[in-house]
Amino acid sequence: MKVSRLLPALAAAVLSVQDGTARLWDSGLETPRDWAGIRSQIEGVLKPAPDYVFVPETVTSNPDGRVVFIEALNTGTVKGKPVSFKTMHWLVLGDPAAGKDPANPLRNLFEGITASATDPAPAIPLPPRIRQLAWNREAAGILVAGVDGTATLLGPGLTEPISGRRAMTAYLDRLFGAVRDVALEPRATVSADGTEYREWVGTAVALGGADPRPISFSLVERTVKTATGTAWSLHFDTLDLVASVQTVKELRARIFG
Questions:
Q1: Are 75 and 53 contacting, i.e. CB atoms less than 8 angstroms apart?
Q2: pTM of the shown model
Q3: pLDDT tens, 89-104?
């Protein structure tokens, strides 16, 4: 195993790799962690939340099973308070070539974005190359208009899907307002039974905490064909988009030691 983009809970699965080549790339990490680092991170998670439970809800792989996208529900208790959150994981098997914290309050970057009943839906599909250009040019309107038949969008910071071009464009504009110099390249694409995952990986300049700095940035688009159109969801880390470097370090230290 070369590199897996997954959170500590899912990392438990890769600890069984006997040759020690498992790698973890997680939010707030500049470089992937090795086998020993993965174990340390898992232990760090379980200290504040010993009843932590990781439940995969959807698992979609490519035909040879080497690339797997997993959406999961995470639950546990931290300082007597029940917590629950969804996560997205990208697991690569084998060589690909072969909330708010009292001490560190983090804002919801997308708070207040809502849909309108009079907001028209997108309609024109875009080929991958054009979508790549739209992401890198931070062209929210083009991205929204280019998801064929999309009736809803779900992403970080939203408690329920939103619909309509204006609401979805406002969501992406909020994202692009927290970054600049986006440079993404296509990576894994997995399609099965009307569900498609497409990952974009590259760099950006994060503006979180009035502390601009270059970061590694990845984003997963998920589309699901339904009887009424296409449900679109986005998955990406928001930590660097709302927090300074120092805040990120403090949060990781509190969780992982």
A1: yes
A2: 0.72
A3: 888 776 544 434 455 5
